[in-house]
Please model this.
Amino acid sequence: MWVIAGLAAAGALVQDSRASSPGASELEVKAAMLYNFIKFVEWPPHTVASNAPFVIVVNGSGAFASVLARTVNDRTVGGRPVAVRQASTAAEMQGCHVVFVAGTDPARSAGVVEGTRKSAVLTVGESPGFARRGGMIGFVIVDNRTNFEINVDASLRAGLKVSSKLLRLASVVREGE
Amino acid sequence: MKAARSIKAKLIAINMVTSVAAVVCACAGFAIFEIRGFRAILAGEIGTIAQIVSASSQAALAFHDYKAAHETVSILKAEPRVSAGCIYSGEGQLIAQYLGPAAVRCPSRSPKGPEEVFDAGHLSLTRTVELDGQRIGSVLLIASLEEMYSRLGRFALIVCAVLGASLLLALLISSVVHNVISRPILQLADTAREVSSRRDYTLRALPTGEDEIGVLVERFNAMLGQIQAQDEALREAHDETEARVVERTGELQAEIARRQKTQVELERAKESAEEANRAKSAFLANMSHELRTPLNAIIGYSEMLQEEADERGAEWVGEDLRRIRGAGRHLLALINDVLDISKIEAGRMECRVEPVDIRSMIEDVVSTVEPLARRNGNAVVSACRTDRLTMPADMMKFRQSLLNLLSNACKFTERGTVTLDIADAEEDGRPWLEWSVRDTGIGIEQSQAEKLFRPFSQVDSSTTRKYGGTGLGLAISQRFCQLMGGRITFESEAGSGSVFRIHMPAEERDGQECMAGAPAGPVE
Model:
């Protein structure tokens, strides 16, 4: 199941018919999904300058950062290139559009969430209950399949609009559930 | 009424064909327009649905959420026109499908691009699913064309109804209107029939307006006028001819009658002439015997008396008796000649052909004519230039003819020479003999030559008195030679002598009979 999903994901990203690389790992799956998330989210206009690249900040996993970097290499979103950075402090996360909190540490997740509360930043995490605790999109594994939960309120608060198409695929959660 | 039926039928047919053609063309046009319109609309609507499905399945395809894809495609249940909906991944593999009640399946691989394909029963419409400018999958909807066909079916029914109605209408209108065309034609046909059956060229067809048929009627009438005029002229000529024929026939008949009468008269004349001839010949033949008997007595007794007188030395009686004998002989010769000629002309002269010794004949005639020749101081010479020994001829007759020529030669020559020459000749490839008698005597003038062989004509009467003779000799000789298959020819010049030739066949021909009834005639 995983392998097939991974293959499909890789194929969806690649426009010509090159055979997808075998042995896609969980990291690659999440990276691909993360890249696709961006296509289904609308940022407020003033935060998205025309030519500036999309910035994804990865917090807490150098491995994921490099996988993500590889995945989004030369890809665009809405015609704009995507850049991947690593950061650990709030200051370093300034000016980004997406933050990925790697790892399962709930404290770190809460810290990042808190730190980006005031800005239009999409917070994505993989710790359990990430979405319930204020994060916007949280990866969950259901039946060996990578799924995700979306906290719509949190995204609305940040001024982000998540497409209903994405919402349909996800489990929508409310704060505090 | 054949003409009426055909024209009516033709008009009806034309009308109906025209109507049918018009209706069919119109309906075909509308049908095509309908179908295209329907297809376009269907494609548009299904295309819209496909777009919606495509948009809805973006996220499912992006995140490979096949359950969501399946949910998306299942909404097609609400659209009865869609028989199947298929969602394919970016590689063209079937991920989710909706199959309606119709037996339609999704193809296992996606068609390439966005396209609309109409086949017999369905529209297969494909749209690509794109996310942010990239193709992540495709959606194929298969819509049934059933509705279109049912609409077309209703349309066809309407067309048939319209067609039927228009055919009926065409039929009705033609049935009524055809008379406009066919009545004048029928009238014309009737007139023509009457004219030809009654041979009455004074009839005319009724004029019928100014269309083509009217023109036809006019011309027809003009033609009848011409025929009428010709017919009358013909009649006149015929009558005239008849009259003339009758006249000529009468004339001819009169002529024939006249000629027939003439012919009858001529025949009668001929018959009586022939009869007279025959009677004459018979008379002569009979009488000759009567004549000769006393004549022989005269000659015989005068000879006897002359001999006795000579014995007794009574010369004064002898001379007279000689004269009596001479006259009697002359008379006998005349009678013999006349008998001969009449026998020949009656066709009763017989002759018998046998081989005659040539040299004996020469000797015989020369010696016979010698005394006569000497009387005029002529010399007789003979020359036989043929190797033949005999010749087929009637001995007596040939001798008589030859002697006749010789004695003529001697008579009409004084102190000259008479030459008898026999030579070979050829005519028509057959061997002949020429017996030529040449003399150096007085000759014969051209003008007299014609009458030479005619009976009873000596050259002139003075000749008879001077030279004696009966005037029948040459005629008889010619007839004799002709009987034997030959003839006599001559050449002469007044004052320088003549040559008479007997031409005789040197060899016997088929049969030994003489030429029967050889006709008399002048011979060159």
Q: What stands out?
A: Chain B touches chain A at residues 55-56, 58-65, 68, 89-91, 131-137 (CB under 8 Å).
